[in-house]
């Protein structure tokens, strides 16, 4: 029986950083520094790539559901329980 898990993470992105990494936590959101610039969707692509790699899932299972053109974004990851994502982020 397949589980229909879907986790969400709120991030405030900082494009054009030296490296892509989670920098801090601010309440319910995380500060995500992105090495990519905010042009032609490059920062959004880097955000999706970061979470797919972090959670060990394909990029097709990660999408930005709120904030495509904003610094404040909500990223959704299919097939992963919210608790698993929360645990992974706590250790960064």
Commentary on this structure:
There is one protein chain. The chain has 92 residues and is α+β, with helices and mostly antiparallel strands. Helix content is 25%, strand content 35%. The protein is built from 2 helices and 5 strands. The chain has helices at residues 42-55, 82-90, and strands spanning 6-14, 21-26, 29-33, 62-66, 72-78. The protein has a 5-stranded mixed beta sheet.
CATH class: Alpha Beta
Number of domains: 1
Name given to the CATH homologous superfamily = YggU-like
* Cα-to-Cα separation, first versus last residue: 32 Å
Order of helices and strands: EEEHEEH
Strand content: 25-35%
Q: What characteristic shape results from the CA principal axes?
A: globular
CATH topology: Conserved Hypothetical Protein Mth637, Chain: A
Per-chain topology:
Blueprint: E1 6-14, E2 21-26, E3 29-33, H1 42-55, E4 62-66, E5 72-78, H2 82-90
Parallel strand pairs: 1-3
Antiparallel strand pairs: 1-5, 2-3, 4-5
Q: What is this entry, summarized?
A:
The chain has helices spanning 42-55, 82-90; strands at 6-14, 21-26, 29-33, 62-66, 72-78. It is an alpha+beta fold.
What brief labels describe this structure?
92 residues; alpha+beta; Conserved Hypothetical Protein Mth637, Chain: A; five-stranded mixed beta sheet; 25% helix; 35% strand
């Amino acid at each position: 029986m397949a589980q229909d898990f879907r986790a969400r993470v709120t991030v405030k992105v900082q494009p054009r950083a030296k490296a892509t990494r989670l920098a801090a936590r601010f309440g319910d959101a995380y500060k995500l520094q992105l090495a990519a610039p905010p042009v032609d969707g490059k920062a959004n692509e880097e955000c999706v790539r970061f979470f797919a790699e972090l959670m060990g899932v394909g990029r097709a299972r990660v999408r930005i559901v709120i904030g495509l053109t904003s610094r404040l974004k909500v990223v959704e990851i299919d097939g992963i329980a919210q608790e698993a994502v929360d645990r992974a982020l706590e250790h960064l």
